[in-house]
C-alpha cells in the first residue's frame, strides 16, 4: 500500500508577520493617543464650566458689593448734601427765626454728609462725582472694582470651551485614522488564506499602514 504523499507546506507570504505586528502596534498607539486627547478635551470642558461659574459668581459679588453696600451710603451722602444746599437757599429767603432754624438744619445735614463720606470710597473719590446731578457714577465704580481682580477678568471660558471642542474633534479624527490601519491588518490576515494573492495583499497592507500613520501625524499637526 502506497504511503500518502504529504501536502506541501503553505508558505507564508514575505512580510506578513511584520505587517500584522506593525498594524497592531500602530492601531494601539493611535487608539491610546486618541484616548489621551479625548480625556484632555473632557477636562478642558469641565474647566470651562468652572470658569463660567467663577466668572458669573465674581460679577454677581461685584454688583452686590457696589450696589448693596457702597451704593446706599453714597446715596445717603448725595441726599444729605443736596438737602443741606436746599435748606441753605431756603434759609437765605426766610426771615428771622425761620431762617435761623433752616440754617441750623442745613449745617446739621452738611455735618451728616461729612460723617457719611468718611465711610464711602465713592463719595470721597472725585472720579465718581457727577457734578451735573450731585450724584455718583456707580457704573464706573463697578468697573474699577472689577479691575481689582485681574485674574478673574483674565478668565475666558469661551476660549477654554473652544479648546475642549478642538480636542474632541482631534480625538474623533484619530479614531478615524485607525480605519486604514485595521484594513492593513485585515489584508495581512487574508494573505494567509489566499497564498496566491499574498504578495499584493501584503503590499496593500503596508500602503494602508502608511496612510493611517500619515493621517494620524497630519491630524496631530493640523488639528
Summarize the structure.
The chain has 223 residues and is mainly alpha-helical. The protein has one domain (16-222). 81% of the residues lie in helices and 2% in strands.
Write the layout of secondary structure elements.
Elements: H1 16-93, H2 96-118, H3 121-124, E1 129-130, E2 135-136, H4 138-147, H5 150-153, H6 157-193, H7 198-222
Antiparallel strand pairs: 1-2
Helix pairs in contact: 1-2, 1-4, 1-6, 1-7, 6-7
Report on the structure:
By secondary structure, the chain is an all-alpha fold. It has one domain (16-222). Helices cover 81% and strands 2% of the residues. It has helices spanning 16-93, 96-118, 121-124, 138-147, 150-153, 157-193, 198-222, and strands at residues 129-130, 135-136. The protein has a two-stranded antiparallel sheet with strand order 1-2. Helix 1 (16-93) packs antiparallel against helix 2 and helix 6 (157-193) runs antiparallel to helix 7 (198-222). The longest helix has 78 residues, at 16-93. The model has no long low-confidence stretch (mean pLDDT 85).
Shape: rod-shaped
Regions with little confidence, pLDDT below 50 for 5+ residues = none
Give the N-terminus to C-terminus distance in angstroms: 72 Å
Major sheet details:
2 strands, antiparallel
Individual helix count: 7
Tell me the radius of gyration: 40 Å
Mean pLDDT: 85
Give the % helix.
over 70%
Structural class: mainly alpha
The spatial strand order of the largest sheet comes to: 1-2
